[in-house]
Amino acid sequence: MGHCVSLADLLNEVAEALEPLAAEVDDLTVYPYWADEPSPPALDVYPGTPFQAGAGFGAGNNQVFLTVRARVAMADPGAAQATLVRLLDPDDPASVEVALSAVDGMAIAEGGVSGFTVYADDAPVQERLLGCEWRVTTFL
User: Fold this and answer.
1) Residue 55: predicted pLDDT
2) Is residue 80 classed as helix, strand or coil in its secondary structure?
3) Which CATH number covers residue 71?
4) CA nearest 81: which of 112, 109, 118, 52?
């Protein structure tokens, strides 16, 4: 049932699965942890809230939830939105959902894909970032 890796290994594995999207989205940066001041366009991966639902005792029995977050700069709002639409679209070569399918046991959690969200706190020099999130789950 379980993934049988550490949380740090899982975050790195998810980030590695997302790396090929850089061939589809110019200048895309992928961070295996929460990126406080990303260089957009960016994807970061971090423990979600809530993080864990205990399905049993021991490794491989704990359902965990991660957040994969995309953020883009708003200097060109049309281009920013077009980038996010590509990342959200399961039929696009830049699909985050399709990239995540490469991670064994990974699934989109119920209610797990957000629409557009403005992130004003994570950008340097008061720049707003637009983004969206995927809530994903697997077992550790």
Assistant:
1) 63
2) helix
3) 3.30.70
4) 118
Whether residue 2 is contained in a domain is answered as: no
Instruction: Identify the H or E element spanning 62.
Output: strand 62-73
- For residues 16 and 77, what is the distance between their CA atoms, to the nearest angstrom? 28
Number of domains the chain is built from = 1
pTM: 0.90
Cross-strand partners of 68: 45, 134
* Residue type at 132 in one-letter notation: C
Contact 96, 133 (CB under 8 A): no
What CA–CA distance (Å, rounded) separates 61 from 64? Answer: 9
The residue range of the domain holding 35 is: 7-139
Give me the DSSP letters along 6-24: -HHHHHHHHHHHHGGGGGT
Residue 102 has pLDDT above 50, yes or no: yes
In whole angstroms, give the CA distance from residue 31 to residue 84: 17
